[in-house]
From TrEMBL:
Pfam families: ABC_tran, oligo_HPY. This is Nickel import system ATP-binding protein NikD. It comes from Streptomyces spinoverrucosus. Transmembrane segments: none annotated. GO terms for biological process: peptide transport. Keywords: ATP-binding, Cell membrane, Ion transport, Membrane, Nickel, Nickel transport, Nucleotide-binding, Translocase, Transport. It is an enzyme of class 7 (translocase). Belongs to the ABC transporter superfamily. GO terms for cellular component: plasma membrane.
Amino acid sequence: MRGLSVRFLMPGGRRVAAVADAHFDVAAGECLALIGESGCGKSVLASALLGLLPANAQTAGEARLGGIDLLSAGERTLARRVRGRLIGLIPQSPAAHLTPVRTIRSQLEETVAELTGVRGQAARRAAAEAVADRAAFPLDHLDRYPHQLSGGLAQRAATALALVGDTPLLLADEPTTGLDRDLVDRTVDELRRHIDRPDAANSGGRALLMITHDLAAAERIADRIAVMYAGRIVELADATAFFGSPGPRHPYSRGLLQALPDRAFTPIPGLPPELGDLPDGCAFAARCDRASDTCAALPPMTEDVACHHPLAGHGPEHPRPAAPAPEDIRA
Ligand code: SF4
């Protein structure tokens, strides 16, 4: 993804910058967790990758997968080659994505027939049950309709549907919503197994972009973390360093972790800004205890953090050690 931006043109000529200049890679066999508060633009970014934005959206930049630029691809390419085949989606509102008048079994079998080479009713039935089991969906509920499912079961049905196509990229938008902690762990462990499992078509494994505000789930599954605030990626970090030592470097990322009950349990003061009314400088300044006059200018992404005064490691309080002289390297 290179400079991906999405803005909405609203009545009266107002413009809402929902995603601005997002820039990152996700490798095969890797899970990148995109975290941030609700309304920060995470799901808009996911919709942009699938060509599912409303008509008043404008996009810029590039998002490449398998030789296709997802932002400029036409609807025919997206429908026939991308959705379900190159990108599997676990949607944020599973109940709204399931067909209400068909059983889960029927929807799974149809998806198996459409996306895989499995032929014959018995084989399709077996494949549908296998993928339901992988998503922890109880087999004795397969003949139920979506309205007969709890929110958690609808979530698992949607996860099963997303796994059918065995896609090189799985896009999971809040995949643990409505699940209790045991099922959260089971769901993310299955997603992890899914991306790690090599086969002929995906010899390096699959990639997972998981959008979540469940930091415990992100810590359990992710290799890398991308933090989004007010439409911008403000930090990219190795997950172990982010959740452990030296910890996050952006003040907003630190605030997210300190808000957790098993850490400081201290909420970030204030509220995020309206995406349609962002300041010219750092959008976090009104909530930031490190803000200075410098922050009136938009901080560039430098060494994977967009902050004029980052924490720990490379910031002004903890300067990075000077590079060794060539003679020291030789020694
Ligand atoms: S740029 Fe300034 S206001 Fe923004 S997060 Fe960094 S220190 Fe805080």
